[in-house]
Amino acid sequence: MTDQTITPRRFSASVPLKGRITIPGDKSISHRALMLSALAVGESRVSGLLEGHDVLATAAAMRAMGADIARRDDGEWRIHGVGVGGLLQPQGALDMGNSGTSTRLLMGLVASHPITATFIGDASLSGRPMGRVIDPLSQMGADIGASPGGRLPLMVRGLAPAIPLSYRLPMASAQVKSAILLAGLNTPGITEVIEPVPTRDHSERMLRGFGADVTVDTDSSGTRHIRIVGEAELKPQTIVVPGDPSSAAFFIVAALIVPGSDITITNVGLNPTRAGLIEVLKAMGGDIELADARDVGGEPVADLRVRHSALKGIEVDPALAPSMIDEFPILFIAAALAQGRTVTTGLDELRVKESDRLAVMATGLKAIGARIEEKDDGLVIEGSGGDPLPGGATVAGHLDHRICMSFAVAGLVSEAPVTIDDIAPIATSFPNFETLLAGLQQ
Ligand code: S3P
Asked: From the DSSP assignment, how many helices (H) and strands (E) are in the chain?
């Protein structure tokens, strides 16, 4: 999983995008569906699972720790879990590839089991900070030996029984929250995460769905107190994974900025902790219509109709950042085509994603002729007013799927093609991205 062939690709000015697509399953929900199914007693069934490299890394790791995980020919996944407390000692290192979510959540699971696991990953993942999970998991009793700077490769020696913890999140991170809650699953007593800024709540929803005792109280200041009662018994579930709003985002913006476009994206997850981009794009004048709002597997879902629109620049409320944290790279592309200035702030977390997304987006956008100013915690973008960008440059993707897809979309509205040095990382979250794009260009 860490070795991939380097694949450069050119993206050129596009005909109007037309038609109907269904995007793959939600990455965050897919990871959690595999992990919790692997800890339930009995057989769970998961359909709509994202079969991207990140999620497959989680599947391989759960197999290495004893779960029986198989994909049927019809695409449904069947998982026989080992029970909470039942994870087995993995025989080799767990290769997390590019996946921060797999790494941080699995570190949480290992932390309260009597096993030792080594985590390795690609160059991008090996540069990302793990101190944010090492701190709370060490307080719960895990013994963690990391590479300098709290990075991969690292080894987690779990403690069972672990020590319950009450932990206030120092940054808005669903991965840190989830790592602690998952460690709390096999810890006697109550483990609590205090979350001053709400982040995606898929872990809380799904833990409850599997029968864990999880309560969420919001105090008068809006801070969430999430408590899990440990030594839980999880009951197997049938899960339908909704489409990933973070993947839909690339096609939403593509349709808004490619003149003449009119597309429908079906089955898009619209959990309020994930839907910030749609709110921002609508405020910019984007024509996005929701239809057939419904519930899929405990998550709100709708079909989206998106038409080309004259966008205008705005100041993005930093309070929205956690609900669109993965969507800023593609929002910057939308802003580069808008009329006027877009200002984003409060985005320090973007510097520690699969790449430093502020620096990498600023460099790439400048290279293709957009007017950008990089600040410590955000970008300021002067839009083209709908005119195509000059393009005609090669952009470095830095092993970051969302950077690659953002510049692919930029290529669709550029005078000269935009070349991405390596699009292989797209397969971590959106293996059929290019196929769906080609289908809308017929
Ligand atoms: C994720 C949480 C977010 C997000 C990532 C997926 C998750 O990371 O960026 O793509 O599934 O919990 P942080 O917790 O670092 O914000």
From this structure: 13, 24
**Ligand 1 atom closest to 32 (CA):** 11
* Residues near 387 by beta carbon (within 8 Å), at least 6 away in sequence: none
Q: Mapping DSSP to helix (H, G, I), strand (E, B) and coil, where does residue 190 land?
A: strand
CB of 182 shorter than 6 A to ligand 1: no
Res. 195: pLDDT tops 90 = yes
pLDDT in tens, 248-300: 999 999 999 999 999 999 999 999 999 999 999 999 999 999 999 999 878 99
Residue 28 in contact with ligand 1 by CB distance below 6 A: yes
Relative orientation angle of helices 174-185 and 131-139, to the nearest 10 degrees: 30
pLDDT digits (tens, 9 = 90+) for 390-422: 999 999 999 999 999 999 999 999 999 999 999
Q: Where in the chain is the domain with CATH 3.65.10.10?
A: 9-25+242-440, 27-240
**Atom 11 of ligand 1 has which residue's CA nearest to it?**
28
pLDDT digits (tens, 9 = 90+) for 382-398: 999 999 999 999 999 99
Question: CB–CB of 392/417 below 8 Å?
Answer: yes
Choosing from 68, 326, 348, 387, the catalytic residue is 326
Q: Whats the size of the chain, residue-wise? A: 442
Give, as one character, the DSSP assignment of residue 351: G
- Atom 15 in ligand 1: residue holding the nearest Cα: 173
The answer as to CATH 3.30.70.3340 being correct for domain 9-25+242-440 is no
Distance 371 CA to ligand 1 centre (A): 29
Options 3.65.10.10, 3.20.70.20, 3.40.50.2300, 1.20.1440.230; CATH for 27-240 is 3.65.10.10
2: pLDDT strictly greater than 60: no
**Ligand 1 atom closest to the CA of 31, numbered from 1:** 11
Choosing from 180, 325, 357, 405 the residue with most ligand 1 atoms within 8 A of its CB, the one to mutate for a pocket test is: 325
Tell me, yes or no, if the pTM score tops 0.85.
Answer: yes
Whether 326 sits among the annotated catalytic residues: the reply is: yes
